[in-house]
Design goal:
The protein is mainly alpha-helical. Among the domains are: about 100-205; about 210-320, Heat Shock Protein 90 (2-Layer Sandwich). It has helices spanning about 15-25, 85-95, 100-150, 155-205, 215, 220-230, 245-270, 270-275, 310-320; strands spanning about 35-40, 55, 210, 235-240, 245, 285-295, 295-305. The protein has a 3-stranded mixed beta sheet, covered by helices on one side. Strand 6 and strand 7 (about 295-305) form a beta hairpin. It starts with 12 loop residues before the first helix and ends in a 10-residue tail after the last helix.
Length: about 325
C-alpha cells in the first residue's frame, strides 16, 4: 500500500546486478610504469638555477620535458650550435691591457741588458790581448830554443835545457789552441746575444708605439667647431694615420698640433667671399700628413690659404712693444 503523496519506490537490485556484469567483462587497466630519477641539467651561467635538482620522469620520457620520445627521436641528441661567445673570447685574447708603468719597467730592464752587453766587448778585447801575449810567448820560446844550441856548455846540460824549453813550448802551444777555441766560441755567443738583445729592444720599444690616428682623432671635431665659429668652410684631409709613434710623444704633440691647425684656419684660410674673388674653391683645404722615414716621424700641416701676412704681423709686434719701426721686418 502506498501512502498518498509519498515518492515512488524503485527496485535497484536489477541495476546493481547489471553493473557487476559490465565490471567483470571490462579488462583491467595496465599497471603504471615505475618511475626513475633524472638529473636536471645545470642552468646556464648567469641564470637562476632550478629549485629542485631532481625530479621523476617515467621510463622512455625525455629528461627535458617528461614526454615520451618518439621512435624518430631515439638517435643521439643534436649537437648544439657553437656559441658566438667563443669567437668573441678568442678575439679578445688577441689584445690585453698592460699598465704603462710595467712597460716603462720592461724598457728600463732592457736598457740594463744593453748596457751589460758592453761588458762582453771588454771580455772580447781581453781575450784578444791574451792570445797576442800567448803568441809572443811562443815566439820567445822558439828563439830561446835556437839560442840554447849555441851555448858553450856540456852536452848533457844543453840537452836538458832544450828538453825543458821544448816542454814549455808544447804547453804554450796547447794554451794558444785552447784560447783560440774559447775565443771563437765566445764570439759566436756574443754575436747571438747581440742579435737577441737588438730584437728584444726593438720589440719592447714597439710595445709603446701607438697609431698616430689617436692623435688625429680630435682634429675633425676641432675643425668643424672652428669652421662654424669663423664662418669658413674647411675640408680636412689626413694621410698616414697608420704611422706609429711613442705614446708619450703623442700626448706631447696633441696641443701643438691643434694650435697649428687653429692658426691655419684663423690666419691662413681666407673668408669665402675673398676666396671666390681670388678664384679659389669655396672650401679651404687643410692637409695633415704623417710619414716615417729613417726611424723618424715627420708631421706636416699644409693649407691652401693666403699664408702669413708679414706686414700685419709686424704691426702687431709694434703694437705689443716687441719691436720698433726701425726693427720692423719689411
Amino acid at each position: 500500500m502506498r501512502l498518498k503523496g509519498a515518492p515512488p519506490q524503485f527496485d535497484i537490485q536489477p541495476l546493481l546486478a547489471a553493473f557487476g556484469e559490465v565490471q567483470r567483462s571490462t579488462p583491467a587497466p595496465p599497471a603504471a610504469p615505475p618511475l626513475r630519477r633524472v638529473r636536471v641539467p645545470k642552468a646556464p651561467l648567469g641564470k637562476t638555477p632550478p629549485r629542485h635538482l631532481l625530479y621523476l620522469a617515467p621510463p622512455g620520457a625525455c629528461p627535458c620535458c617528461c614526454r615520451p620520445c618518439h621512435a624518430s627521436d631515439t638517435g643521439p641528441p643534436p649537437t648544439p650550435a657553437a656559441a658566438p661567445v667563443a669567437r668573441g673570447r678568442s678575439a679578445a685574447i688577441a689584445t690585453i691591457r698592460v699598465r704603462t708603468d710595467r712597460l716603462d719597467q720592461l724598457i728600463n730592464l732592457t736598457g740594463e741588458l744593453v748596457i751589460g752587453e758592453q761588458a762582453l766587448t771588454a771580455h772580447d778585447m781581453a781575450l784578444r790581448e791574451m792570445i797576442a801575449l800567448q803568441q809572443q810567448q811562443m815566439r820567445g820560446l822558439l828563439a830561446l830554443e835556437g839560442d840554447i844550441h849555441q851555448l858553450t856548455i856540456p852536452q848533457a846540460r844543453r840537452e836538458l835545457l832544450a828538453q825543458q824549453v821544448n816542454s814549455l813550448l808544447n804547453v804554450s802551444e796547447r794554451m794558444y789552441r785552447q784560447l783560440r777555441e774559447e775565443y771563437e766560441q765566445f764570439q759566436r755567443y756574443a754575436n747571438h746575444q747581440h742579435t737577441l738583445l737588438g730584437d728584444l729592444e726593438e720589440e719592447v720599444i714597439n710595445t709603446r708605439l701607438l697609431p698616430i690616428s689617436n692623435l688625429f682623432a680630435t682634429l675633425p671635431r676641432a675643425v668643424r667647431e672652428l669652421s662654424h665659429e669663423t664662418g669658413k668652410e674647411i675640408n680636412l684631409v689626413i694621410h698616414g694615420e697608420e704611422t706609429e709613434l711613442d705614446r708619450k710623444l703623442l700626448e706631447a704633440l696633441s696641443d701643438p698640433l691643434l694650435h697649428i691647425v687653429r692658426n691655419a684656419i684663423d690666419h691662413g684660410i681666407e673668408p669665402p667671399d675673398l676666396r671666390t674673388e681670388r678664384g679659389k674653391p669655396l672650401k679651404g683645404l687643410i692637409e695633415v700628413r704623417a710619414e716615417a722615414t729613417s726611424g723618424k716621424v715627420r708631421i706636416t700641416v699644409r693649407d691652401d690659404g693666403r699664408g702669413i701676412d708679414r706686414s700685419g704681423c709686424g704691426t702687431l709686434r709694434c703694437s705689443a712693444g716687441w719691436s720698433t719701426q726701425s726693427t720692423r721686418p719689411a
